[in-house]
Design a protein that fits this description.
CTP binds at residues 102, 112, 128-131, 146, 160, 164. 27% of the residues lie in helices and 27% in strands. The protein is built from 6 helices and 14 strands. The longest helix is centred in the C-terminal third of the chain and has 17 residues, at 205-221. It is globular, with a radius of gyration of 18 Å. It binds cytidine-5'-triphosphate and calcium ion.
Length: 222
């Protein structure tokens, strides 16, 4: 009964969400990764679907898939980029909750790297910035980015909002306890392209997702 009562303020909207940290191959048995659990992205997918959106979740992790959500499994930043760009023209909103690796090994080895010397150097090359590319291509889509910072949160988040041409930027200070990677809770500030800001208290990732979806629904109405 509770599901039936949920407000349907995202009814008919196509929303693409990315979740989890990308894994960049070093060799057949190893990867470079990060601490993203994917929980924020999955909470957003569950809430958006409950509020009536058609949700596609491009994900690097295998958490339980929320009801009504279409899952697209990916592993690397390049795979995530393909999955997102190929669907971009058909969506109303993209939420980039994923922690995309900024760099990948230049030449992943076909065979397992054996240990030899005391030191090992792996050369890395920058990955494409998916959100920035979306910001350059967007034609009416609403773009929602995340920024996980350990210091100067406000300044870096504002810079990302502008540099990536996003409409909403969800900033969190991952140096605080209970915030960000792997936790059940989050404390975020929502910045918007018109200079607005909303400071939310520490709350569950589902509650944060509800607040983000409310801001998205407001933006879509205007
Ligand atoms: N992002 C992306 N593609 C990348 C890197 C980041 O789409 N190659 C997206 C993330 O999904 C997030 C936003 O950009 O929504 C900000 O990511 P973040 O790592 O905080 O910022 P960067 O621009 O990568 O800058 P830095 O890591 O140096 O702070
Ligand atoms: Ca980054």
């Amino acid at each position: 009964a509770r599901v039936l009562q949920a407000k349907q303020d995202l009814a008919g909207k196509q929303i693409l969400i990315t979740a989890g940290g990308t894994r960049e191959a070093v060799d057949p048995v190893r990867f470079l990764g990060n601490r993203s659990s994917g929980k924020m992205g999955y909470a957003l997918a569950a809430v958006a679907a409950r509020r009536g959106a058609k949700v596609t979740l491009v994900s690097t992790v295998s958490l339980p898939v929320p009801a009504g959500v279409q899952i697209v499994p990916v592993e690397t930043a390049l795979e995530m980029r393909d999955a997102v760009l190929s669907r971009f023209n058909d969506v109303d909103v993209v939420i980039k909750a994923a922690a995309v690796a900024d760099y990948r090994p230049v030449a992943p080895q076909a065979q397992k790297i054996k240990k030899h010397d005391e030191h090992l150097t792996i050369e890395l090359v920058k990955n494409p910035d998916i959100l920035k590319e979306l910001g350059e291509r967007k034609r009416g889509q609403l773009l929602v980015g995340f920024a996980a910072e350990t210091h100067e949160v406000e300044r870096f988040a504002q810079e990302k909002l502008q540099k990536k041409n996003a409409d909403l930027l969800i900033a969190n200070d991952v140096a605080q306890p209970g915030v960000g990677f792997g936790t059940e809770t989050n404390q975020v500030t929502i910045l918007d392209r018109n200079g607005g800001r909303e400071d939310l208290p520490l709350m569950s990732k589902t509650e944060v997702a509800e607040a983000i979806c409310t801001r998205i629904a407001q933006f879509l109405r205007n």
